[in-house]
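Practice set, problem 2.
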Amino acid sequence: MSADYATFGLAPATRAGGLLAGGDYQVHRDFVDFVVDGYPLLFRLSDLDAVSPLASDVPPSLFTAQVRSLLLETEPPLPAGRFVVYGCPECEDLACGAVTAVIEHDGEDVIWRDFAWQTDTHADLELNGYHGIGPFRFRGTEYRAALAALLDGSAAGARRRVLLIGARVALLARLAAALRTIGIGADIAQNADGVPAGELRAYGAVVFGRSTGAGHRDTVRRAFATAGVDVPCVDGLAPIVPLLVAQTEQALDGSPPGRRRLTDLTAAADAAELEVTSSCRVRLTAYRVDRLSRGHTRDLFDGVLEPGRHRVPLDARAVRGEAYVVARTGGTVLVTEVDRSRSRA
């Protein structure tokens, strides 16, 4: 085993939720990801929709137990000294599949090795091993300090509640219900007047209905500024709930751009262009509003893309008129308006 050391760190990460075609949805999850040599470990695992055991929405006692397990203060949860590194974002059932690894002491050092995809009690390294990942040797002091920070409260938490402002209460009610379905709290108000500063600090974003006037929006922004709260403000693009959910997810993503799998998205009438930082599954969806103000949805692309910039041709019928494109991976959502003034050809 190599004696070279890898650096170990932790960083906030998100598994973006959203409303999918056909009425399906995926739950929003905030978690702490493992950063090895300055790069998220999850990004080394192509096309994996998963979260670490260090999720912010689990009970404090369970979160603490997971941290102490990774600190090797308790017995391994799986045979042969194996630990779950990434699991299903919808449930905790090993049958759904999980990435596991052996975690052990080597003197003062900590070793992560023998990564594998596991669906039952025992891992088959020959058949399901991640042979190109690890082993990683971490300095014990660095490793323990990073995890201990989660126990003493020095790790930042996420705000997963949004404030919805607008005149179309019925639309906002549908949006609030959709956000709550995927695990994001939502409150509806006409303005932020008289709301205590402590309550405003609970919000991670503000979403404005597109009928909300500029002066009204400025008043809400001033209320948050007076309370010392800096939150992203989302200007709703169209009265289409899945599109507004995607905009909200994008606003709630506080991860640094260098740790996102999608970093850029633009769309013209004939093609979309996007930038991918690591191999991952990408889904493109078009939303448009017709002349009768009805919303329409069309799936455009669903596949694994390698790192780099990609051009995806678009069906002109799916993006005619007022149209928008949403790009989605497990951890990132980007939304853009279709620019009909130019083409990608």
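Problem 2, part (b): a different protein.
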Amino acid sequence: MTAEGTWFGQPRGLTVLFLTNMWEQFSYYGMRALLVYYMTKQLMIGQAQSSFLYGAYTATAYFTPILGGVIADRYLGKRKAIIIGASVMALGHFMMTFEGLFYAALGAIALGNGLFLPSLPSQVGDLYKRDDPRRGWAYNVYYVGINIGGFLAPLICGTLGEVYGWHYGFGAAGIGMLAGLVIYLSGQKYLPPEQPRKTKVERVAVRGFDRRTIFVLIGIGLAVTVFRAAYEQVGNTVALWADSGVDRRAGSFSIPMTWFQSLNPLFVMLLTPPLLAYWRRRAASMPGQSLARRMAFGSLLVGLAYLLLAAVVAVSGSQPAAWAWFLLFFLAFTFGELFILPTGLGLFAKLAPAHLGATTVAAWYLIIFTGSLSAGLVGTLWSRMGHATYFAMLAAIAGVAGAMLLAMGSGVEAAERRNVEMSDSG
């Protein structure tokens, strides 16, 4: 547990952590908003190769946390891992301002992310006792906080990149990462103390993980991998379509293409509070709601959002679609996202055994790695088929993921019960 006292009814450390990650998300999404445009417009890399590089980069950024989580749990501890990781990421963002360092910069960001990413969310769980009723909602609150950075990033970094030059946008992303590091260092007294590290981690893992729970997590991982092949297209092929397929005029003003990427985090912030209130009322009246079914519903909603986009493209033909349809797409897309992604992250943290919090959360990022790599491969099909057909294919991919999660409902519920029993006995 942390230092006494709360902010907004939650441990003060939660505010410190989500502000830290807010600025990390600002830097990540600021760079991501520019990346595919920078490659195709400045570096003159072809669309298929740019889409694959985009997917490969995001996949690598979520592969390194697999190793980073183990390093944090075994050697560095979460705090040192976060500080080192944030520093390396800031360096990488500043390296992006030099064309000749493009690939080295992407590598530095991915390496720093490996230490940073699994350690910070796992500290959220450390703020609460296992029976604290606030624990279940903490990751949704955290998700809102970090999406403030995702909302601001395309508006600031995207505008700087489009209007003044790509490198100004990348530099702003680096400043954001430094801001997150300063906040984290300043809020140390509110953060949970480090758990003592075991000298025989493997033995702890064998005792802490039930085999059936491992199979459940693998099953969730496969389903979310399929889901992310469709989900990750928002910053990839959907962004390419927004550049040429959307009528961005609002009166005499032309909406910058990167601004549309702020819609997703904006809707996260607007939709999460009423959604949490609904879930609380539903939990009070109908306890024991299935998290797997909640995730399945989210995946199906994202599929419906892509079906809407397919219909809009089919009806518009060769004419650009009105930007209001794109706004509606992001509304449905984000609503579905809130049912699946923070729920999945919270579920992985919930089922984590003691002293392996960062390692277990790192397994969630393995899913993002495989999903991002799949998204990069799917993105190469953008130039090979009609856009309406392509978006319909993404809807089908999200639907398959939803069906997989729906089939796992009873297994997830059983794993949660075993986790509670192990906590009570331990």
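Answer key, part (b): The first strand starts at residue 6 and ends at 7. Residues 12-42 form the longest helix (31 residues).
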